[in-house]
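Input chain follows. Return structure tokens only.
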Amino acid sequence: MTPAEAFEVIQVELNFIYDMVYTKAPVAHRRAVWALRSGCLVAALAIFFLLDKPRHGIRRVDVAIKYALLLGGLALDAAALLMLLFSNRVTVYLEEESRRFRWLARLTRAAKRWRARRWSGKTSQLNLVSYCLGKPDQRRLWLRVADKFCLGDMVDDLVFIRRMPLLTTAASGEGSLLDFVFHGLRDAAIVLKAELDDTTAGSSDGFQKIMKECGCRGERAIKSHENAIIKLPAGEDKLKLIMDSVAGREFDESLLLWHVATDLCRVKDNKATATPMTTEARLRPIGETLSEYMLYLLIKQPEMLSATAGIGLLRYRDTCAEARRFFASMDEWVAGHDDDARALLLRVNTSQKPATVKGDRSKSVLFDAVILAKALRELDDDELMWEVVAGVWREMLTYSAGRCRGSTHVRQLSRGGELITLVWFLMAHMGLGDMYQIHEGDAKTKLIVHDQ
């Protein structure tokens, strides 16, 4: 199965879940309901065409209103029947259960091709550095008015949050972000299947192996390039620093670190532009898109990362405040030249640890991210750098998807759905995560007391 086919199946399944939870579809597809709807439509048509009584002086405007209401009821009943006829449930029934009406199933499928996609195929993007550079001074009158009426967040959403399409192919033409995520999960499922046999698949040992495989937040992506990194000058130090940024920190701190570092990695130091067929050209937009999407989830959809977010919002605010202070103190930076501002960050002297400079009260990760970005850029090979960056973000996405509650994913369907929900459902199909696992100790003891 190709990635496009897999995600199409998942979108259909999520559409069924949405119908079950948020619509009357489970009731509307019963035979009794079909009979009642058809009967109501026939009765309305009979009244409209057959019933003819003297008006007895009824005003014409009253007659017009009654006919308008009757026609409105007819239109609603006809629309409801058409919606039922073209629904997924009826299409499946006509194809599998009724041989005489398969032509009707083909007709409904042909008609659905003209409809919009089941999912928008877009994700929301938020960039921390761009937000800090573009945020107007809070002393401006219109911002103070917006804050007074609790509209500040709405203004930020309109100005700084972008919608990025995902279903288009990457610059290299070799695949999209969805393909990248699919292949990563498929490889993890193959490795896990090789480690598990029939005896351990349902045991606690098997469950622990599954959770270990799903608990990677970037470690596996870094280890897969361990040999290439160690061969570089001071390679062991670089490897330790990069590994500690994902394994030695809380998830929300690691996410902010890698978001800022990913943003700084795209600053070019007089390097040649990547050709469309290189690995860098394919993975760079994937890494950037996932980076800005995960930050959007952390700040604007925190319930999706509630199990892993920690104090992410506090860290984000402190990091933004420190970034604004830094850019305000730089006379070299000219407003509107965002890449120059990022280059100034990379020129900061990071010989001292940021914790000794900022103290313990500030939760900012700005200059820790600068240190990480410098280590990534010193990998020399841009292809290696973006393979590590994109791989880490893929694991962060799957890590978050697996730890988000199923009820939260279902609630998100009413708002249009998210990429993280599609990934969660794909993980369930591949046997990754604890969706179908029965934990030891989950069974309840039942006590029956008989009358003596």
